[in-house]
Structure formats: C-alpha cells, structure tokens
Amino acid sequence: MHPSTCLLRLNGTFIEDQNSCQTDHCEGKSKKFIVPLVISIVAAVALVTLLSVLIIFLRKKWRKQTEVVNSTASNNEELLKSKNRPFTYSEIATITANFNTEIGGGGFGKVFLGHLNDGTPVAVKLLSSSSKQGYKEFQAEAQSLMIVHHKNLVSLIGYCKEDDHMALVYEFMANGNLRQHLSETKETVLNWKQRLQIAVDAAQGLDYLHNGCKPPIVHRDLKPSNILLTEQMQAKIADFGLSRFFSTENASHILTSCPAGTLGYVDPEFHASCNLNKKIDVYSFGIILFELITGQPVIIRSTECNIHITEWVRPMIEKGDIRMIVDPRLENEFDVNAAWKAVEIAMSCALQASKQRPDMSHVLAELKECLGRNDQRVLTETNSWEMDPDMLPVAR
C-alpha cells in the first residue's frame, strides 16, 4: 500500500481513499508556505512606502533649503552690488558733503567723513595723483582688495577713478587710530589689557595678509596711525595693499616717488637691499609693540638729540627693570611676566637681520600666550581677594 494511502471502512471492509489523504496533506503544506509569503509581501510594501515617503520629504526639505540659499545669495549679491561698486567723483563729493569734514591724512592723501545713501558712515580717502596706473589697472587692484575680508582689516567698500580723481571708500572707525590713543595729550590712557588686545588684533590682521592671502600682501607702511579702532576698541589694519596702486617699476623708484614706509618704522635692511618681503612688516610691528609697551613715540626727541625707540629701550632692558620700560601712565598696573614676554616679542621682531625675525604666525601665537598670562594673573588676584578673609570688609 502507498504510504500516503488512507483506509476507509465501508460495510466492514477497508478501502483505499487516496484523494482524501492527498488533500489534507497539501492543505497543511500550503498554509505553511502562504503565511510567510503574505507577511513578506506586506513588509516589502510597507518598506517601499516608507522609503517613498522619506524620499519625498527629503526632496521637499532640500528644495526649501536650496530656495533659502539662493535667496540669501541673491540678497548678498544685491548688497555687494550696492556697496562694492565704483563711485563717480560727483557721488564722492555728495557722500562727503563736498569734502566738508576732514578726519585724517597721510602720505596717500586726505581722509574725509562721508555717509552712504542709507546713512552708513564711511571714510573717504582721496589719493594723490602720483599713480601711473590707468583706470583698468586701478579698478582691478581695488576690486581685488574688496574681496579681502578679515575681522582685523578695515573693509574697502568702494572706489573712484575718474580722470585725475582717485578715491577709496572704507568703513568708518569710530575711535580713530592708535597713534591718537598713545599720544601724551590723550586724557584717557589705554590700560595694559587693552594694549595687549590691540597687539593681538593687529597681529591677526597682519598674519592674514601674509599667510591667508594668495599671493601674500605686504603692507609696507604699518604704523600706529594705520591701526584703527572700532567703537568697541577692536583694532583693524588700514591701507593694506595701498602701495600696489602706485607704480613700482623698480626698487629705486619705490624708495623715491612711491611711499614705502614712514621714518622710524621702515626696515633698515629694506633701505639697503630694496628686497620686498613679509619681514618688512614684522619689523614695523615690533616697533609698534614697543610703543604700546612704553608709551613712547618711535622717535624720542630731546634738546640734545633724537633717538629711535629701540635705542632708548635697549639699555633699560639690560638693566632688567621692567618698570622703567613700561608706560608710567599705567601706574604699575600690569603683569610683570606678561610685560617681559611682550618686550621679548618686540625685540625679536625688530632684529636688524630680516632672516632672524619670526613669521607673523609665530608672533601671533606668542602674543596670545602673553595675553593669556595677563588674564590668568588677573583671575588669580581676583580669586585670592575673594577667598582671603583678611581682605573681606568687616561688619561694623
């Protein structure tokens, strides 16, 4: 008998029922197969549905973000068009109220206060007519400087080149320049922390010009009057790259007809070799740092003779008394270790041989450490005062 054959008893006799047996067996196997299949199909449909919903959601989100980015880019482009653009000479005259308020000046020309149409204050520098460049060259240089942006660089927002008239439009700096704040006639005196912070700010701007711009930009006329201060006393470097507007056909021409620094701040090696490089600015920065530390001008004048600040400070450094070096107007309110560190940095920057001077990236790192030492000293003194019972006020 076949193993799958079923026996039925009919009138006392057993007979084979193959159909009955096969149906029951197949139904059992079919059920075992169909249930997992249905579950798999439902799971697959659910997964496909979920993925479709997710893709639709992500597409909508991406589309919205793209619209926002495009809108922002469009707005920024409109803003740039409204500010970073050439001005006509008549517009320059209107902005400055016919050159009514002079706020500064130097080797490149006079500076006037101006206001854009939206009321934004600006500084308008009228350049002298000594440039040999044509309009296209001037325009290319100005536009290249307008894309140089850093928090410690004064922003150039426009320019004018019309016939013999040349002008640059800068952001306005409310607190003037560093030279004004270091002047003996200034009633308010910069404290030690402010001086260190100004040095760090200026170093950051210079480091960006040297190491963040391709090709590097050498300032060539760094001095306190070219370090401007915002309303919050943040320092920004001005007039960077300005010498590039003027003809530099050869080195002798640079020294004679093209501004290449200010007396006292010019690298002595550059005078001898005319080798234009980044270390020129490092030397100038060292001199400025000495001025911040000592409060003395770069050329100290007396009835007997005029002496450079490095010659004035050198014998005092040899004596080892930092209080003879630091600006007496601070009334000894400074950290001695931070002051010596600042003097060491200034000395290294002002070395005669340019190869021995550090890169601005190194100078910046050292100044930040110097500022950190000063802050730590202030914090330590504050904590010791708060925790010392003898220093606490006595209740009466």
UniProtKB/TrEMBL annotation:
The keyword Ligase does not apply. It holds the Pfam family PK_Tyr_Ser-Thr. Coiled coil: none annotated. The chain crosses the membrane at residues 33-58. The keyword ATP-binding applies. SUPFAM superfamilies: Protein kinase-like (PK-like) (SSF56112). Keywords: ATP-binding, Kinase, Membrane, Nucleotide-binding, Serine/threonine-protein kinase, Transferase, Transmembrane, Transmembrane helix. InterPro entries: Kinase-like_dom_sf, Prot_kinase_dom, Protein_kinase_ATP_BS, Ser-Thr/Tyr_kinase_cat_dom, Ser/Thr_kinase_AS. Residues 97-371 form the Protein kinase domain. ATP binds at residue 125. SMART domains: S_TKc. Belongs to the protein kinase superfamily. This is Protein kinase domain-containing protein. It comes from Hibiscus sabdariffa (roselle).
